[in-house]
Amino acid sequence: MTTIRRFSCRDLFKFAQVNLDYFTETYNVSFYLQYLARWPEYCLMAESVGYQRTAYILGKVEGEGKSWHGHVTAVTVSPTYRKQGTARQLMDTLEDVTANRHNGYFVDLFVRASNKAAISMYEKLGYSTYRTVLGYYSNDENALDMRKAMPRDVRKESIVPLSRPVRPEELEFD
Asked: In a 3-state reduction of DSSP, which class is residue 14?
């Protein structure tokens, strides 16, 4: 059985097995601590029996006006615990926080264009590609900016795809 709980500072010393994946971005400790301090409701850890860390999600809320949204900074599941619905549980929780606590218009995330398994999972969760970000990742790989409208965006304006790719310097960051 998997339990979802708040990500804590102690988890930073015990989650390496979850983070050891080519597709997972690894950040420095101060980055994780910033998220835990500013957006604790968006930082969740999944544990199996015996308190083994199996997955986590980091996110935040950002933007202004109709761009007010939840952002998935990282979601990753340890390879031995994949295909068990844990990522869905984590994403559902983040979406719930965005819609019900922050009243956001959408949730977005960036995913490597080569990560076909993740793209397929996100599409099954209702996400669609909003735009391609050229050379977003450190190895110059493109990212897909995928979005899912929340109930506040009744007309689903936030997910209408852009007609052209963008460069990282064209992104709006908060």
From this structure: coil
For 135: left if phi > 0, alpha if psi spans -120 to 50, otherwise beta; the answer is left
CATH number, residue 34: 3.40.630.30
Give the amino acid at 155: R
Total domains present in the chain: 1
The boundaries of the domain holding residue 103 are: 2-170
Beta-carbon neighbour count of residue 49 at 10 Å?
8
Render pLDDT for 49-105 as a digit per residue (tens, 0 to 9): 888 888 999 999 999 999 999 999 999 998 888 889 999 999 999 999 999 999 999
Q: What is the pTM of this model?
A: 0.91
